[in-house]
Design brief:
The complex is a heterodimer of chains A (about 120) and B (about 110).
Chain A (H helix, E strand, L loop, with lengths): L3 E4 L2 E4 L5 E7 L5 E7 L5 E9 L2 E4 L6 E3 L9 E3 L8 E8 L10 E2 L3 E5 L1
Parallel strand pairs in A: 2-11
Antiparallel strand pairs in A: 1-3, 3-8, 4-5, 4-9, 5-6, 7-8, 9-10, 9-11
Chain B lengths: L2 E3 L4 E5 L4 E3 L2 E3 L5 E8 L6 E7 L6 E3 L2 E6 L4 E6 L8 E9 L6 E2 L3 E6 L1
Parallel strand pairs in B: 2-12
Antiparallel strand pairs in B: 1-4, 3-9, 5-6, 5-10, 7-8, 8-9, 10-11, 10-12
The chains are: A mainly beta (about 120), B mainly beta (about 110).
Chain lengths: ~120, ~110
């Protein structure tokens, strides 16, 4: 089945720890994205990547880092510098850059809780 | 600047009733795309529809229909004969051509009561 997978589904972190959220897609999409969702709010863009070995900051990139070494994978690291990391994180991909209006498809999400 | 407003935070309907979810957008660009997504309790966003700014035709897909009106900057979503499985949070989103940021509304939580 083609799709986007995210792991883990639930993640607990102690303050001061870095954690990495996994996102993999087998849709052969060029572009990938990370969003953060807080209760009662819409999604906010953290980082996006239009091509391997290239990525750009979104609206709320502070305290996060990403890499794009393979087309299929776009892991997100939540660093200790992120002051309020408890949230629902969604990964998405599109066949090409959103700039062309291409549809984004989303993974099932990872719920991160800081203890 | 772009903005999407979903003024209805929560809606409850009884099964088989029709329901309309409102979406009003703001942009100065003439070329843009509008989307609707469904977020069931599992959390994954499910794509429902994509519409570009040059296509104002209404669309129907089964029990779902969309009314796009540029004159009022609205892209409303109607569910006919609602079912319990329609219970979810629905998001409207906007992107202008050339940008890489999809602007989401805050969502409307729909509860369909059996």
């Amino acid at each position: 089945d083609g799709g986007i997978t995210q792991s883990p589904k639930y993640l607990f972190r102690k303050e001061g720890q870095n954690v990495t959220l996994s996102c993999e897609q087998n849709l052969n999409h060029d572009a990938m994205y990370w969003y953060r969702q807080d209760p009662g709010q819409g999604l906010r863009l953290i980082y996006y990547s239009q091509i391997v070995n290239d990525f750009q900051k979104g609206d709320i990139a502070e305290g996060y880092s990403v890499s794009r070494e393979k087309k299929e994978s776009f892991p997100l690291t939540v660093t200790s510098a992120q002051k309020n990391p408890t949230a629902f994180y969604l990964c998405a991909s599109s066949i090409m850059s959103l700039a062309g209006g291409y549809t984004q498809y989303f993974g099932p999400g990872t719920r991160l809780t800081v203890l | 600047a772009q903005k999407v407003t979903q003024a209805q935070t929560e809606i409850s309907v009884v099964e088989k009733e029709d329901v309309t979810l409102d979406c009003v957008y703001e942009t100065r660009d003439t070329t843009y795309y509008l989307f609707w997504y469904k977020q069931p309790p599992s959390g994954e966003l499910v794509f429902l529809i994509r519409r570009n700014s040059f296509d104002e035709q209404n669309e129907i897909s089964g029990r779902y229909s969309w009314n796009f009106q540029k004159s009022t900057s609205s892209f409303n979503f109607t569910i006919t004969a609602s079912q319990v499985v329609d219970s979810a949070v629905y998001f409207c989103a906007l992107i202008v051509t050339g940008a890489n940021n999809l602007f989401f509304g805050t969502g409307t939580r729909l509860t369909v009561i059996p």
